[in-house]
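Annual report, structural modelling task.

Input specification for the zinc ion complex:
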Amino acid sequence: MIVLGIESSCDETGVALFDTQHGELAHRVYSQIDLHRQYGGVVPELASRDHINRAIPLIDGVLADADCDKSAVDAIAYTAGPGLLGALLCGASVAQSLAFSLGIPSIRIHHMEGHLLAALLDEDNPPPAFPFVALLVSGGHTMLVLVKAIGDYEVLGSTLDDAVGEAFDKTAKLMGLPYPGGPELAKLADVGDAEAFTLPRPMTNRPGLDFSFSGLKTQVRLLIEAEPDSRHADIAASFQKAVIDTLLIKCRRALKATDAKHLVISGGVSANRYLRQQFDSATRKYGFKLHLPPMSLCTDNGLMIAHAGALRIAQGKRDYTIDCTSRWVLDELETV
Ligand code: KG4
Ligand code: ZN
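The model returned the following structure:
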């Protein structure tokens, strides 16, 4: 079965073809970074207008890349939430119109489920055994999830304020780094001293699996105001270490609480090199197995949506109405 995936929840238009037998057939992402950079963040209306212009050429592009006629597509999966409503509706309208005209089913996919299941696309490692714990770290969400089966998710904890990617982005902005700040801050951190400043590991000294990053961000803002620009790399490295240490403490706690042996980390921040190194060395120290998406599938893309769609269609899921939701809880997938 060949599934066309369309992702348009924020500032990337991602389109891909996934074959249940042969895996990835084609995968293209158009990033709107240049469009939003002058505003220092995503402008929702501009994002929607750009998605609608990019979607069809990208679909034609992946069909050409895969040397595949659209009549060979068996189903279309699209991101139906959470995200920017206007942006979501662009992808959904294209997906539904195309599915209707081709007479094939379409399926709504939760963006974070797409991220979560992208870790199963790592061809170099065997997939995680159920049940496993997933840490989802993106620009809009941070959560720990117990994955009992595909489609059966229990949210164990989530952020009470900023998402991890959002904390990276906001801290980068305070340092005057260009949008999108997360990868820029990570680059700066690479040349800084992570021990230079002592920062808190928020909410680690009390029980529970929730996160909070806004207090840490405020501490970093005070440092940025007090220290000269020449110390920005040290501040970035100390901030990055505080965040990753916090994530590791909470992940170990979640693994222990659920008795799971496999940990998946996905979402845009899973592209962070320091995170990948720290968690990799933790696997040897604490004896759990780590699963990450390939680097090209950490940030938003259509392949993760096509792949999640294929897995959900295999379970018999279908839908035929355009329905997007900007807020959608991962453990209530079937109720919206
Ligand atoms: O999953 P994603 O592409 O979009 C959302 O669903 O939000 O994640 C984007 C987030 C942004 O906040 C971005 O700054 C962050 O992921 N990000 C990173 C890195 N690459 C992307 N944060 C830290 N280090 C990185 N290397
Ligand atoms: Zn995302």
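The chain has a mean pLDDT of 96.
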